[in-house]
Amino acid sequence: MHQKRMSMPTSWKVPKKTNKWITATSPGPHSKDSSLPLVVILRDLLKIVDTSKEATRILQEKQVLVDGVARKNLKFPVGIFDVVAIPANNQYYRMLQDTKGRLYLNEIDENRAKWKICRINGKTTVKGGKTQLNLHDGSNILASEDYKTKDTVKLSLPDKKILARFEYKIGNTVMITGGRHSGMVGKVTEIETIRSSKNNVVKVSGKNDIETIENYVFVIGEDKPEIKVGEQA
């Protein structure tokens, strides 16, 4: 299925009036609204190819890695904090979100491309009584029971071994990944637990002091961001 450019998600930072159609994402680790198809990244953002046919060729040659894995699907969804690498060109990027909620590629070095951060969205108990962490990018890893939902883990790529853990708690550094404060980076000053079906409220101090719901808060470090961050207009 293709997507009309005029009705594409607002998170796609792509011109709307150049063509009528644009490639849609295929089902995968991220939703349509929170990811970009790989072909759009190569053609419209990085501009290293001019057509889908050229993109197909370099993907078939395994020249493009997403989180350390060669991807051949033009429609593969690349979402926030995913790492896109083109080693032959010495190009490495991490997908981030700007202050308008649009996805963009933040250039990083080769060493930073060897790991990514993931939020723990849930935990399940699997065969043998082991604990499985369900991560925001759709992947699952085995870990100890000590890890909590809303914590963030730093994972090596592509094997996804835990290198570090950043707790969801007051004082740690977070990025807002939804709502009208998208892209803002600051420190958690208060977590208000709501005793109802409503979302918990988190207060964050940065350039401005704001309140947002817990689901939009993504821990990215302790005293300072673990990842390289930067705003794009």
TrEMBL record:
Record-annotated KOW domain positions: 171-192
InterPro entries for the chain: KOW, Rib_uL2_dom2, Ribosomal_eS4, Ribosomal_eS4_central_region, Ribosomal_eS4_central_sf, Ribosomal_eS4_KOW, Ribosomal_eS4_N, Ribosomal_eS4_N_CS
Domain Small ribosomal subunit protein eS4 N-terminal: 2-33
Molecular function GO terms recorded: rRNA binding; structural constituent of ribosome
GO biological process, one term: translation
GO cellular component term of the entry, any: cytosolic small ribosomal subunit
Domain Small ribosomal subunit protein eS4 central region: 90-162
CDD domains reported in the protein's UniProt record: KOW_RPS4
This protein's UniProt keywords: Ribonucleoprotein, Ribosomal protein, RNA-binding, rRNA-binding
Family: Belongs to the eukaryotic ribosomal protein eS4 family.
Protein name in the entry: Small ribosomal subunit protein eS4
Species the sequence originates in: Methanolapillus millepedarum
Origin organism lineage: Archaea, Methanobacteriati, Methanobacteriota, Stenosarchaea group, Methanomicrobia
